[in-house]
Amino acid sequence: MAQLPLGGPAAPLAPSPVPDRRRARPREPARTGAKPSADPDAALRAKALLVHKRLCAEYHCPIGYFHDLDPVSELVSSLLSHRTRNADSGAAFKRLRERFSTWEEVIEAPTAEVEEAIRGVRWPELKAPRIQEILAQVLARVGDLELDFLAEMGVDRARAWLEELSGIGPKTSAAVLSFSRLRMPALPVDSHHHRVAQRLGLIGAKVAVGPSHAILRAQLPADWDAQTLYDNHEILMLHGQRVCHHRAPRCGACAVADICPSAGSAG
Ligand code: SF4
Hints:
By secondary structure, the chain is an all-alpha fold. It folds into 2 domains: 18-64 and 206-259, Helix-hairpin-Helix base-excision DNA repair enzymes (C-terminal) (Endonuclease Iii, domain 2), CATH 1.10.1670.10; 71-179, Hypothetical protein, domain 2 (Endonuclease III, domain 1), CATH 1.10.340. 54% of the residues lie in helices and 0% in strands. It has 13 helices and no strands. The protein has helices spanning 18-24, 28-32, 40-59, 71-81, 86-99, 103-108, 111-117, 124-142, 155-163, 170-179, 191-200, 209-218, 226-242. The structure holds iron/sulfur cluster.
């Protein structure tokens, strides 16, 4: 997924070890007013809100959108970004737009030319025919290469429509609705967001990225707008990039260490 190039380099390691940071923070109920609950779903919802509040303060919500693409372009951008650094997928998208003036031209081009235009992304030999196939499916279903009509469908129906395209899953459908100029209230979950949510105990250790979308969305208020859901995704992603690394997470510098069951033991 495309990532947000926010801010400068990661903050330096906090000198205090994890237990000190955890002791320094008031416990959750005192800080939020949340009452201990016997309902595990309610407890997770309260925890998800607390995580949102803490990380929003840490990463300065509202977070600016990094794209203002039409939804077809966002769809292509999302396909290019899979397992690829932002800079590389962004450069590939730019070359694709320079080489072909319309998405129709991309469909009709020799696949080798599309592959050449997107060189630099991971698996260009797979992504080139996939992009052509998905664009062709959009054209066949809509009669045009546009997806602005999704705005009228509501998030659930729009995501279902997109996920009927071959190979489109919840992450891409949510990204198209949230990151494009449609600005719809959908919650994408990328690998960083997923890892942080797992370590915090918001989702189980065996819940994969795909199913995590519905679980994590259900923990957040149903009436949250597009910006707030976008913020939630971005702050969890940023936390994974800057603090809760795949290896050696910096728990001593973590704003949610006192409510994290993995503090000091993850990575
Ligand atoms: S305490 Fe450690 S494992 Fe838990 S969210 Fe923070 S950095 Fe990640």
